[in-house]
Amino acid sequence: EGVYSFASMEAKWPAVWDELNVFAPLDDGSKERRYVLDMFPYPSGDLHMGHAEAFAMGDVVSRYWRQLGFDVLHPIGWDSFGLPAENAAIKRNAHPSEWTYANIDTQAESFKRYAISVDWSRRLQTSDPEYYRWTQWLFKRFHERGLAYRKNSPVNWCPKDQTVLANEQVVNGACERCGTIVTKKSLNQWYFKITDYADRLLDDMDALKGHWPDRVLAMQKNWIGRSEGAHVTFVIEAAGEEKVQQELTVFTTRPDTLYGATFFVVAADAPLALDLVTAEHAEALSDYREQVKALSDIERQSTERPKTGVFTGRYAVNPLTGEKLPVWAADYVLADYGTGAIMAVPAHDQRDLDFAKAFGLPVRAVLDTGAEDPAVTGTATTGEGTLINSGELNGLSKSDAIPAAIEILEKLGTGEKFVNFRLRDWLLSRQRFWGTPIPIIHCPDCGEVPVPDDQLPVRLPDNLRGEALSPKGTSPLAAAEDWVNVACPKCGGAAKRDTDTMDTFVDSSWYFLRFVSPQFTEGPFDPAKVNDWMPVGQYVGGVEHAILHLLYARFFTKVIHDLGLLDATEPFSALLNQGQVLNGGKAMSKSLGNGVDLGEQLDRYGVDAVRLTMVFAGPPEDDVDWADVSPSGSAKFLARAWRLARDVASAPGTDAAGGDAALRSLTHHTVHDAKALLEGHKFNVVVAKLMELVNATRKVIDSGAGAADPAVREAAEAVAIVLSLFAPYTAEDMWETLGHPASVANAGFPAVDPALLVEASITAIVQIKGKVRARLEVAPDISEDDLRELALASEAVQKALDGAAIRTVIVRAPKLVNIVPA
Ligand code: ANZ
Ligand code: ZN
């Protein structure tokens, strides 16, 4: 031996760790528990560089907590339903499960080689019937509480994937997955009533501040979009014809501007527009609605686009003034926000002003902000100011006028304070095959009948393959007649199963709970275990999940709490977003041809070197540019660390007393600092400190007592333990060489001797006129007087002063003396 060989370490240790069951938690309450979780992978192909980075970070936390003596739960599973498997199955005339489980096996092998410290006995897959049985069970509990319901409404439709999408899956008007522009389609779909939880989702973020990235919290806050204002109801003027619509309610954040409303706008695509329009204007509206359909919400709200719209022929009456205001239909008002209708105040809202200019509608300022009249400038005024042209509100400030206006409206019975949310209910049904079947049976007599709990899971049929799965706009499950046609559980009559499957984000909204007892058969998780582990103490994953997965998981946790099944109200106490792995400053992609193959890197440099490189590249939140890092440099460092252990092992023993004092101090400082740095996720700095310690240890070996010095052994052991967080193979090998039984993962973080942290001396700097003239080695607790005396007596200082008189001496013990000559 004697030569560092990552290949032989990688061949040796996994079996030992397996045998010793090193990474399974005791789960017996003998130690304090901590739960660390990486966002579980999707089984597309083998692991890539992104996995290697994310899992390296999560593993540092997990291994650190284990070294601190916690009982650590660190599980892994697969988010294994979803479109790619289905598309691959169509292409290969296969069943999606074949592709899925083959990929999972490949990834599992790679993860084992990558030596992530997980308890493999807890592995789960969301596409396992043993798992989705409980996804269905939870769906039923939501359904019983009215939190899962079906409604007909215009939904986002991806023409390529031939399925509906949740609002959260539409990014800049396009399908999050394939980039196709999303259209609207009216369909009967299942929803989760996440809007019932909007307030709690927002309020409970307070407890996450400082533990979740600010950016993620800001994104969630914005997505929930709480907006305080009022509902104001206007009576529609009957223009002699039969009245279809009696009233029009708007949501406004600016009830103070009511006197400045000069017209109304309803969303052209809302049913409301059809209810309002008079016969005379019906055709113009219907033509306009065709135009609007093609636009995304982003385009519709763009301030760049010229304003378009049609008059409905109706007027609404301002409850405060009796003024008749024309009602228009336009696309810049969205059908599914607020009430889908607005009172337009062109003087103080730019979009309303643009619209007023385009159609020659009046502009009336009601707030004097000191700026010029918006009717003249074309710029709406939005700042603070004093109310004008506003009857009883005149003279009030904007912030006083808002509640005053609401009070007046409430007295008139025509308005009230209202809090509006941007958040919509979560559309969860999908017209695809490879997902959790919705456990509902539709009976012509009994309506929606849930499948009884003892008949769960509703399994996917296994006789659909290849072409039968191709998207048709309705779920492929509809074609499986023997599966679809069932007896109604209530009346026994002929009935049909629901043929939609659930959004895969449903599967991932509760998997962290399943990990506490993945084999439990009496419920989704063992109630006796779940509160021992939840909430997750550290969650690690990409920022791309800021809204979708993380919001949904928070929602599920709150509902499951409300069901009385869980104490926690938040799933993840702390969140770490790792950066991306780039190559040449750009994300790796096929089209750029800058992909780096993980397997190849592992073959070339070894697992430890790749892991260390990921961690050493910078703080975990930053991107890693593979073109800028040096896995071969990492490999060299690992070999250098490893040789310390070898040298110690082959040196003759000495008595434990003594040892190189400077090295001992450095070792204890390194361990001490590493703790604080690890808590702050400054993993890269810990690695840098280890490098320093390895170099210092080597110097001592090469001089003085050599490897037999007990300070050298102490340093080598500390290196092995701290290094085990980043480079488990090298560390385990060092630990064995140093004469300890496996595993170094359970060695315990080295104890720090506080006496060794006290510095023997510190360098004080002496400046004259701002120039450094001397450096003095002084005791850290030197007094000001002593330091002044020492500085003035110093030869270098005497020389620099050259007899000049001194005006003042400023002393900051123990580090600085500033001499100001007269
Ligand atoms: C009158 C008004 C006067 C308004 C004014 C603003 C300024 P947030 O903060 O996003 O909640 N609005 C309401 N529903 C809308 C919809 N469906 N589509 C487009 N715009 C809509 O914005 C609330 C404001 O956005 C509301 O207050 C309304 O315009 C508009 F000087 O009412 B406001
Ligand atoms: Zn029935």
Automatic annotation (TrEMBL):
Name of this protein: Leucine--tRNA ligase
Organism from which the protein derives: Arthrobacter stackebrandtii
Residue ranges annotated for the Methionyl/Leucyl tRNA synthetase domain, each copy included: 40-179
Ranges where the Leucyl-tRNA synthetase editing domain occurs: 221-409
Keyword NAD attributed: no
UniProt keyword terms in alphabetical order: Aminoacyl-tRNA synthetase, ATP-binding, Cytoplasm, Ligase, Nucleotide-binding, Protein biosynthesis
Any Pfam family: tRNA-synt_1g
Record PROSITE patterns: AA_TRNA_LIGASE_I
UniProt superkingdom: Bacteria
Locations listed in the record: Cytoplasm
Gene3D superfamilies reported for this sequence: 3.10.20.590, HUPs (3.40.50.620), Isoleucyl-tRNA Synthetase, Domain 1 (1.10.730.10), Valyl/Leucyl/Isoleucyl-tRNA synthetase, editing domain (3.90.740.10)
Gene: leuS
